Amino acid sequence: MVNVGILLLIITIIILTIIIISVLIFTAVSNKPNNNPGVIQLPCSKSVDISSLIQIPSDYPSCIQEGEKTSKYYVGKLNPDFDFVVAPFQSSAKNVCIGYCTTFLNGVCSGSETSQQNYDNCIKQLTPTTDCIPPIPIAAIGATLYYPFSPTCNTCENCDSLPPKI
Q1: Which of 23, 57, 72, 85 is most buried, with most CB under 10 Å away?
Q2: pTM, whole model, 2 decimals?
């Protein structure tokens, strides 16, 4: 004779297993991009034309921080339209532009008289008008892309000794 309690327990386990598997399958299917299933969306869907970027000469001095050379470069002397220190890794536009602020709270940048305006202009400059999602590269050394890291040259100790645009 079959014990009814054990039979109900087995049926309950089978039903719960089916429900859990169904939820997992539904979650996996619903998280795929609708436009191209199976394709991972990268931060930038466009190719970068390296020739359109600020070309950092290979002999251009890198930023010095705490007395040490870094992999960062100040490009404001190469192109005054881009008053940024750049690095070979990505940062979000907000993390870069917040460098203009003494404090940043609820979207408000405070500090000097022009902090908010500088922040807003920085965000606008670093947010592309194409389908490329920020961050965007603004400089290159050979095939290595450099992204905005901080505004102005405040993070470099050797700004005064950097050569002007070549």
Answers
A1: 85
A2: 0.67
Distance CA 88, CA 144 (A): 7
The predicted pLDDT at position 83 comes to: 92
**In a shared domain, residues 8 and 58:** no
Q: Is residue 75 part of a domain?
A: yes
Q: Is residue 166 part of a domain?
A: no
Q: Residue 64 CA to chain centroid, in angstroms? A: 23
The DSSP symbol for 13 reads H
> Phi first, then psi: what are they for 123, rounded to 5°?
-60, -45
Average pLDDT estimate for 140-150: 92
pLDDT per position as a tens digit, 19-37: 888 877 766 655 444 444 4
CA distance 71 to 101: 24
